[in-house]
Amino acid sequence: MLIEGYDDGPLAAGECLLTRPGFWSNYLLEFCAGGTDVERAAPEWFGDDGADTEALSETLMDPEWWPVFRVPASAGPGIVVVYRNLVGDYRTDFLLVPEGQSGVQRITGWEGELSGTGLMWQDLVNMADNPAPGAVGVEDCAARLLLVLPLLGDPDVPDGASGRVSAALAAVGVPQGAASNTADYLLARLTDRSWHDPTWGSPLSGS
Predict the structure, then answer these.
(1) Where are the alpha helices (DSSP H) in 43-158?
(2) Does the model's pTM come out above 0.85?
(3) First and final C-alpha spacing in the chain
(4) Domain boundaries, the chain
(5) What are the E-state strand segments in the chain?
(6) What 3-state DSSP class applies to 205?
(7) Count of CA atoms in the C-beta half-sphere (13 A) of 7
(8) Phi-psi region for residue 119, left (φ > 0), alpha (ψ -120 to 50) or beta?
(9) SS3 state at 46
(10) With the CA atoms of 180, 39, 51 and 183 taken in that order, what torsion angle do they form, in degrees rounded to the nearest 10?
């Protein structure tokens, strides 16, 4: 697999990991853990156990195998998530793929904290709901939404956002009884982050 700017990395398709026990707790809690709550989210909220989560973490962070998750869209830009597993310099990159182009633009990186640019809730929904027919990558709309969810930079999401995330979590295997609370927790973390000032608009919105 070749991606511009990652010529020396052992990139590999990571989509096969989406159904592995421990994936979603690893992926989402990496970006949404923390805060000052007495109760912190745990792998069990996702229906995972500690052993599965630890094993999957080792796979995701393997320096010899950099998993890539592709979210191509039929209308508008898509997203590629790259685990850049350089020893001593681990980072997760979110790359924007402009519509009709093959090049990528790094918009967000995670190295223990986020740097870069977030997107509006509606941008994420549009990406999730419009898979590109015939393109290589994730087609399931629930998994697509959860993969791009860490990019949320909108401090004021609509009332239906929690229900949408809850339904997506349930669709990927999170227990029904836990999906709603987990969705609320994730959105609270994501909307509480400091990305931009209140006048900021998504780079995709033309603001």
Answers:
(1) 50-60, 121-129, 141-148
(2) yes
(3) 34
(4) 11-191
(5) 11-13, 66-71, 78-86, 89-97, 105-110, 114-116
(6) coil
(7) 2
(8) beta
(9) helix
(10) 20
Q: Which of 15, 6, 7, 9 has its CA nearest to residue 137? A: 15
The CA distance from 24 to 55, in Å, is 13
Query: What is the rounded distance in angstroms from the CA atom of residue 204 to the CA atom of residue 148?
Result: 14
Chain centre to alpha carbon of residue 179: 17
Task: Work out whether the CA dihedral 46, 33, 138, 65 comes out positive or negative.
Answer: negative
Per the structure block, which two tokens stand in for 154?
């909108």
Write down how long the chain is: 207
Per-residue pLDDT tens for 160-186? 999 999 999 999 999 999 999 999 999
DSSP state of 15: G
pLDDT for 39:
59
- The dihedrals phi and psi of 73, each to the nearest 5 degrees, come to -120, 150
CB atoms within 10 A of CB 2: 7
Token code pair at residue 104: 């990528």
